[in-house]
């Protein structure tokens, strides 16, 4: 009898993990199916011409779904290899590229932006406009490269977060002034910033379907494969917009695919594209002068959401007709990537806070896949 009991226990011990894994796989399958249905509904509601979505789990592209067309003739289906203009998601590449340059001793984040020719004039112009990014802007203050990278430019300098893409767009001019042929040569060419992104991110991550600049002649196949951008009116009518033809200024410029952005995400998780001497810097938010945590740092938004750290960035370019989202949950090895050739993914995140949960796509993703902490003690502070 004891032998029979022992055999039964052995079978149970062996079978239980398999059953649990089977149950987990079934649950995942059901969630994938639910999320696919929700993305299809979102595309229909927003009249998005073409949409590609991917989920990275445990350093693998675990799921992807592509819908619609990349061209106005509706002859080219969107796939996970379709290149999209990723708009402001580019800032994640720029922040990481600057971290590499600083770790190599080539730049100092405390250098003043005013040392770059043309910066003061641009700042004064912006300060005298009614553009939201002008609020509280003091061009006489010692605005540093660090302030720009962390969106801590608007007064009080270094003490508050306010998203300022116009200032971010000066970063390529700063590099061209230091290492290139001068600020007059930053446009119309594969500039220094684009070359640094190639060297430190795209090449190590194997991102062969990504271009860091529209002027990279070696990647013209990506440019010609780029999904057309569209303006969609309230009645759902679609108008093709002029294709972007830009150098990388700092705020935008990168063209990529779901498959390549998954490689990027995985390379961040594994450390393959992080500076060797500062591998964790990218994964934590910046701080203000008083030491308090900011919701942004080196090209990423940060949030403590339901006791879990999120890092993310959205992209929105209404003039070119694209939107994008890259959302990471680092401690759970989980990420969401989405690319669209209209404004349909954008939800109007405020300029001074991080609220990715208000994105319909991100909200659904978090509801289905986020594993919340089990106890209140685990919820206290995501960043300590």
Explain what you see.
The structure is a single chain. The protein has helices at residues 2-46, 90-103, 119-127, 145-149, 165-168, 171-179, 192-205, 220-225, 258-270, 360-369, and strands at 50-57, 61-68, 84-85, 230-232, 238-240, 255-256, 296-297, 300-305, 308-317, 322-329, 334-340. It is of the alpha+beta class. The protein has a single domain, classed as Beta-lactamase. A 7-stranded antiparallel sheet has the order 2-1-11-10-9-8-7. The longest helix has 45 residues, at 2-46.
Concise structural overview:
Helices cover 34% and strands 15% of the residues.
Task: Walk me through the topology.
Blueprint: H1 2-46, E1 50-57, E2 61-68, E3 84-85, H2 90-103, H3 119-127, H4 145-149, H5 165-168, H6 171-179, H7 192-205, H8 220-225, E4 230-232, E5 238-240, E6 255-256, H9 258-270, E7 296-297, E8 300-305, E9 308-317, E10 322-329, E11 334-340, H10 360-369
Antiparallel strand pairs: 1-2, 1-11, 3-6, 4-5, 7-8, 8-9, 9-10, 10-11
Helix pairs in contact: 1-10, 2-7, 7-9
At the third CATH level, what is the topology name?
Beta-lactamase
Rg is 22 Å
End-to-end gap: 54 Å
Biggest beta sheet summary: 7 strands, antiparallel
Secondary-structure class:
alpha+beta
**How large is the share of residues in beta strands?**
15-25%
Shape descriptor reads globular
Order of helices and strands: HEEEHHHHHHHEEEHEEEEEH
Q: By CATH's scheme, which homologous superfamily applies?
A: DD-peptidase/beta-lactamase superfamily
Number-wise, the strands total 11
Q: What's the architecture in CATH terms?
A: 3-Layer(aba) Sandwich
Assign a percent range to the helix content: 25-40%
Domain module tally: 1
What's the pLDDT, averaged over the residues? 91
Total helical segments: 10
Low-pLDDT stretches? 7-23
The level 1 CATH classification is Alpha Beta
């Amino acid at each position: 009898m004891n032998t029979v009991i022992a055999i039964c226990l052995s079978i149970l011990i062996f079978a239980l993990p398999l059953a649990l894994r089977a149950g987990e796989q079934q649950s995942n399958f059901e969630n994938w199916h639910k999320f696919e249905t929700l993305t299809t509904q979102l595309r229909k509601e927003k009249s998005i011409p073409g949409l590609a979505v991917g989920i990275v789990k445990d350093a693998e592209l675990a799921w992807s779904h592509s819908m619609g067309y990349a061209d106005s003739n509706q002859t080219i289906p969107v796939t996970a290899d379709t290149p999209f203009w990723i708009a402001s998601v580019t800032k994640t590449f720029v922040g990481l590229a600057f971290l590499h340059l600083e770790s190599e001793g080539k730049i100092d984040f405390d250098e003043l932006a005013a040392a770059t020719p043309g910066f003061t004039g641009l700042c004064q112009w912006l300060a005298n406009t009614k553009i939201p990014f002008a609020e509280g802007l003091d061009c006489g203050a010692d605005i540093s490269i660090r302030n720009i990278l962390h969106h801590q430019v608007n007064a009080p300098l270094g003490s508050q977060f306010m998203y300022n893409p116009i200032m971010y767009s000066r970063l390529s001019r700063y590099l061209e002034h230091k290492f290139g042929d001068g600020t007059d040569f930053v446009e119309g060419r594969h500039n220094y910033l684009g070359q640094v992104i190639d060297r430190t991110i795209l090449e190590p991550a194997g991102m062969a379907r990504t271009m860091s600049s529209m002027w990279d002649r070696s990647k013209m196949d990506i440019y010609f494969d780029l999904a057309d951008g569209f303006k969609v009116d309230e009645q759902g009518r679609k108008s093709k917009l002029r294709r972007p033809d830009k150098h990388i200024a700092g705020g935008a410029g990168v063209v990529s695919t779901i498959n390549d952005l998954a490689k990027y995400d995985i390379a961040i998780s594994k450390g393959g594209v992080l500076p060797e001497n500062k591998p964790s810097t990218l994964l934590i938010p910046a701080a203000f002068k008083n030491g308090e945590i900011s919701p942004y740092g080196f090209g990423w938004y940060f949030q403590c959401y339901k006791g879990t750290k999120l890092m993310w960035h959205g992209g929105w370019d209404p003039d070119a007709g694209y939107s994008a989202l890259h959302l990471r949950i680092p401690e759970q090895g989980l990420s969401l990537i989405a690319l669209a050739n209209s404004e349909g993914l954008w939800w109007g995140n405020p300029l001074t806070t991080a609220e990715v949960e208000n994105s319909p796509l991100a909200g659904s993703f978090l509801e289905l896949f986020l594993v919340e902490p089990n106890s209140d003690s685990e919820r206290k502070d995501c960043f300590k």
